[in-house]
Amino acid sequence: MRSTRIAVSAALLGGLALPLVSAATASAAPALAPRVAVAKSCNDPGPWVIGTAAVNIRSKASSGSTIVGVLYRGQSFTVSKTSGNWHYITDRSTGVKGWVSGTYVYRDTPMCLD
To answer: What is the DSSP code string of 39-87?
Structure first.
């Protein structure tokens, strides 16, 4: 029984390694054209993004205030001002304005290796 498990494990690992070996040796096919990177400073913050599936838009900068809308991941929005850990946003798709918690909304920061 134990030798069967070892044989099956070895076969699975060998099968997983084959695509890696053949991919490394089969370089005759032309590679896809590399993407042209837009020059961006490492100090420039990226766009605002939502770090969860959805976040409530509130009437005041407080978790107990009235919910006036919902902002979903992938929606575009602008941030007008910040107060503590709260951001006053405008949802570009619906036009709803209100406050969202900075716990769920943040600036995307590029990684630069100098």
So the answer is: P--TTS---EEESSSEEEEESSSSTTSPEEEEEETT--EEEEEEETTEE
Rounded Cα distance between 62 and 100, Å, is: 9
Give the residue among 51, 101, 53 at the shortest CA–CA distance from 79.
101
pLDDT tens-digit map of 57-73: 999 999 999 999 999 98
- Taking 50 as the pLDDT cut, the residues of the chain under it are 8, 12, 15-27, 29-30
Q: What is the pLDDT of residues 90-102, one digit of tens each?
A: 999 899 999 999 9
Contact indicator for 54, 73 with CB cutoff of 8 Å: yes
Q: Quote the distance between the C-alpha of residue 31 and its chain's center.
A: 26
DSSP state of 27: -
Structure-token pair, residue 85: 């850990």
HSE, CB side, 13 Å, CA atoms: give it for residue 44: 6
Distance CA 107, CA 114 (A): 21
